[in-house]
Specification:
- There is one protein chain.
- By secondary structure, the chain is of the alpha/beta class.
- It folds into 2 domains: about 100 residues, Elongation Factor Tu (Ef-tu), domain 3 (Beta Barrel); about 130 residues, 3-Layer(aba) Sandwich (Rossmann fold), CATH 3.40.50.80.
- The protein has 5 helices and 11 strands, in the order E-E-E-E-E-H-E-E-H-E-H-E-H-E-H-E.
- The strands form 2 sheets. It has a 6-stranded antiparallel β-sheet with strand order 4-3-6-1-2-5. Strands 9-8-7-10-11 form a 5-stranded parallel β-sheet, with helices on both faces.
- The longest helix is centred in the middle third of the chain and has 13 residues.
- The relative contact order is 0.16.
Length: about 240
């Protein structure tokens, strides 16, 4: 029989990512192998199946890896407290064990697009696999042209990785953050990421885009990118 790809990992950290006053909770869950094993290698954009050992409920689910893909020491995930499994994961304490299957999925393969401009577009926790991609791009920054990130969130309180996104200009990566609903303290763009793309009108003739997020957002951004000259073969999904 083939060897099972399922193995145990342990919670190293569970850190809230959304503002403490935000009604929605998103945590960064960091997992490391239970035994002194190397973390299984993965490609930017891949995901794993996470389950609770010894129980059928809550049922296992799939989560994109948000970690640096080059020689990782752990897996990071962004988990929104919503369904039964995610609520369970959001409450886990360090030392808790989980069953992990993977990595799996086709990832975001940018190797054929060396020399191209790269656009990373995602909303909410869809920023997780894109984080893995931008760490890959930082390591290989000289191999690509312009790099820009379009990240969308429900409100300013829902924003993720604010501090990290602000540092990406050091690597010549442009960052555009939009929110669907603003507040008095918010002076940035209000709307959807596809609107920000349409307003900026990036040149799609020698560019590739990576999309991650809700299907409605993916569909809307795909249409916008096509209108901007992006060929379908250069609009990448990780599933």
């Amino acid at each position: 029989m083939p060897k099972s790809s399922t193995y145990r990992m342990r919670v190293k950290e569970n850190v809230r990512m959304t503002d403490p006053t935000c009604d929605d909770i998103v945590v960064r869950l960091t997992l490391t192998p239970v035994r002194n094993e190397a973390v299984r290698p993965f490609k930017a954009g891949q995901y794993v199946r996470i389950g609770v050992p010894g129980v059928d409920q809550p049922a296992p689910g799939y989560f994109a890896i948000a970690s640096e893909p080059h020689e990782p020491s752990s897996y990071d995930f962004f988990v929104k407290c919503a369904g039964p499994l995610s609520r369970y994961l959001c409450d886990l304490q360090p030392g808790s064990e989980l069953e992990v299957d993977g990595p799996m999925g086709k990832a975001f393969d940018l190797e054929p697009y060396r020399g191209y401009d790269v656009y990373l577009i995602g909303v909410g926790t869809g920023i997780a696999p894109l984080r893995s991609v931008w760490h890959h791009l930082i390591r290989h920054r000289q191999d690509y042209g312009k790099v820009a990130i379009y990240a969308g969130f429900l409100t300013p309180l829902h924003r993720l990785l604010t501090d990290e996104l602000e540092t990406l200009s050091e690597h010549h990566i442009d960052v555009h953050v939009t929110v669907e609903s603003g507040q008095d303290s918010w002076d940035g763009p209000i709307g959807y990421v596809q609107h920000a793309l349409a307003a900026d009108q990036p040149d799609g003739s020698h560019a590739v885009a990576c999309l991650a997020g809700m299907s409605a957002m993916v569909d809307a951004c795909t249409q916008t990118l096509q209108n901007l000259g992006f060929d379908d073969s250069r609009i990448l999904l990780n599933y």
